[in-house]
Structure formats: structure tokens, C-alpha cells
Write a structure and sequence with these properties.
Layout (H helix, E strand, L loop, with lengths): L6 E12 L3 H9 L1 H7 L6 E7 L7 E8 L4 E12 L3 E10 L2 E15 L2 E13 L6 H19 L1
Antiparallel strand pairs: 1-7, 2-3, 3-4, 4-5, 5-6, 6-7
Helix pairs in contact: 1-2
């Protein structure tokens, strides 16, 4: 079987206003127990390997198998962290052991009133058979922000 070699690029910006103080939203990313409570696909996935090292140069790993479906693997490196302001990561995704994408994501935290405006900006490169997956990545990121909102509520 020959794999068609190709690249596709996709980018998106998502913004959410959470009626929660900024330090609480920040802690949902910076504290391992809190992040584990909301990160991932919830009941749709059987969790596997997990690693959490929230520092510049630190790595996160989240792996899991969707029920009756593929094994998903996320590996991120923190490239910039400014407490209560921003988190920047580069990350790679695999599906059933096949490298599907590399992305850079910036997560920004801004106080407004008594709440927090959270902005996620991402640019990704999708490989070979996953070339058209940018829309799914945006949808998956929206799901994570929904899960974060539910966790914070």
C-alpha cells in the first residue's frame, strides 16, 4: 500500500468567557489533579499513559483509546509560561501509532470584571492521510473548552 505524501495547514482561534476568577481558570491548567479532572474525552475514552510536567521545557502526555475505536496520543512541550497570562505549547498527535499532526497553540488568560476571557489560538500541520483533519481539530478543541467550562461550573 502506497501512502500519498501531502501536507495541509489549518489554524483557528477560539475564545470563551468564563464567569470564574482568572486564578481558578489558570489552576485548571497548572495543577495536575485539576487538569486530569476535565482534560480528554471523558467517558468516550479509556485512559492510558498520562504525564504532566507544567514548566517551560516540560512535557505532557495523554493517551487513550476511544471505545471501539482508535488509540489517540497527545505529546506536548511547554515552550512559554507566564503565570496568569499565557501558556504556549508545541504538540504532536498520533492516531493508532501514525503521526497525524504537529501544532503550536497559545492559551491566553485575561481578567474581565469577575470573570476570565480565555483565548486559544492554534496553527497545525496535518500529514498524509490526515491532511483534511483541521476542522476536526477545531471541533475537538471546542469540546475541551466545553469540558473546562463544565468543570469550572
Amino acid at each position: 500500500m502506497t501512502i500519498e505524501r501531502r501536507l495541509a495547514r489549518a489554524g483557528f482561534t477560539l475564545s470563551r468567557d468564563y464567569p470564574i476568577p482568572l486564578d481558578r481558570v489558570w489552576d485548571a491548567f497548572a495543577d495536575e489533579q485539576q487538569k486530569r479532572a476535565w482534560w480528554g474525552a471523558g467517558d468516550a475514552i479509556e485512559p492510558g499513559e498520562w504525564a504532566f510536567n507544567f514548566r517551560v521545557g516540560g512535557r505532557d502526555v495523554a493517551e487513550g483509546r476511544f471505545h471501539d475505536g482508535p488509540l489517540s496520543r497527545y505529546e506536548a512541550t511547554y515552550t512559554d509560561i507566564v503565570e496568569h497570562v499565557r501558556i504556549v505549547t508545541t504538540y504532536d498527535m498520533w492516531l493508532d501509532g501514525i503521526h497525524m499532526s504537529t501544532s503550536v497553540a497559545s492559551l491566553e488568560f485575561e481578567s474581565f470584571g469577575e470573570g476570565t476571557r480565555f483565548t486559544h489560538v492554534e496553527h497545525g500541520v496535518f500529514f498524509d492521510q490526515f491532511w483534511a483533519d483541521g476542522a476536526n481539530r477545531e471541533k475537538g478543541s471546542q469540546g475541551l473548552l466545553d469540558a473546562l467550562g463544565s468543570y469550572l461550573a
